[in-house]
Amino acid sequence: MIEKIALGLLGLAVGVLPTMVLLTTPVLAQSGVEEKGTQESLILAQAGAWANVTLRLEDLPPGFTAMPPAEIAALKEELSPEQLNVENVFAFTRPQRFQLIMGITTRLETAQQQAEFDELLGDPEKLKSLLAENLEQTNVPAQALNNINNIGDAAAGVSFQVDLGNLLGQLEILGLRRNQMGAFVFVLYPDGDRPLYPIAQVGRLLDRRIQEVRTGGN
After folding, report:
1. Cα torsion through 72, 75, 77, 81, rounded to 10
2. Whether the predicted pLDDT of 62 surpasses 90
């Protein structure tokens, strides 16, 4: 059940990425700023540095387990036909006091791609409708996340109730961008409960690791 939910949510996220023009087709740099950003991304990508921008099992409280590496690799491979520059896919679950945490990071190599990403983040309702259009939602109004200040150059999030068949869940979605890296994070937990590891912490950790990569930190 948990793995099916994880795979389903990730499938939704993957499906919307082309809609947001996240590197579905390479865009030629049209300014010196874009060229500089692209060159920087290429250097970092060649060094494998962007691979450090992810959530790790040791970051989480006890009780979480990681999705098996083979399944993560298979999910990343599924992205290849879309020609997306997806750097990392991560997914963790906690069976007792259930919580699901998962995310995708992707490179935004041009100013145009970054602007399009930011435009989506400026409309949380659109973010919700795109990333959760196939989930069974309830009549409880969605709410914007209000604890995500000072995350990235741009960030937005939304929280809403979903019907998972045998239980009601609360799904939180956070999108963020820092420089050439964008990310989407999903946190799912039983409605009425509180997440053991809040989505804002995931966002801030990813943001910090992006900055560490850019400055050469560990």
Report:
1. -160
2. yes
